[in-house]
Amino acid sequence: MDNSYFKRHLNSFAPHHGYSSSFRHVPVQRQATPSPKVVSIQVQFVGLERNRSASTLKIQKAFRGFLVRKSLKKIAAIKGDVDEIEKRISKKETVELMKREAKERLKVNETLMSLLFRLDSVKSVDSGVRDFRRTVIKKAIALQERVEEFAISEME
To answer: CB–CB of 119/75 below 8 Å?
Structure first.
């Protein structure tokens, strides 16, 4: 066996870095990263326990306000969609189309139902939010009943 044959083939599988084979690797010693200095800071609570509970109330009020605004924004967007459907239903051409075609009635009904499902997913944190949500739900249900009346009038 010829050793030069194996050396030549083993070298063909070695990674090529563009360095000559006489290049030697120099071991690099890395310094350990210095640990961060720990500084202790004394914390003193100034004031009475009453101030702490007042702060807690402020945080709770801010968070509840955030939840109310978020819920109202969702309900207002859904109300806009319901109002848009109401405008379309009030047009004479749409009414005639829905009286003739069941597909159009189904489309409007499904849209209203999906809006009702979205309304159902909105959490009611406040009584005002619940009332607003309830009025939008009643309006959507009234529109569904109106669309069903078109189907009844078509059958007659």
So the answer is: yes
**Cα–Cα distance, 140 to 148 (Å, whole number):** 13
- CA angle centred on 117, ends 83 and 80, rounded to 5°: 20
CA angle, 55 then 56 then 57, to 5°? 90
CB count within 10 Å of CB 14 equals 8
pLDDT per residue over 72-120, tens digit each?
Answer: 999 999 999 999 999 999 888 888 888 888 898 899 999 999 999 999 9
- In the 8-state DSSP scheme, what is residue 14? S
Q: Radius of gyration (Cα) for the chain, nearest Å?
A: 36
Cα–Cα distance measured from residue 78 to residue 115, given in angstroms and rounded to the nearest whole number: 6
Please, what is the angle between helix 102-121 and helix 49-90, to 10°? 170
Q: Give the pTM.
A: 0.62
Cα end-to-end distance, the chain, whole Å: 103
Work out the burial of residue 99: count CB atoms within 10 Å of its CB; fewer than 13 is exposed, 13-18 middle, 19 or more buried.
middle
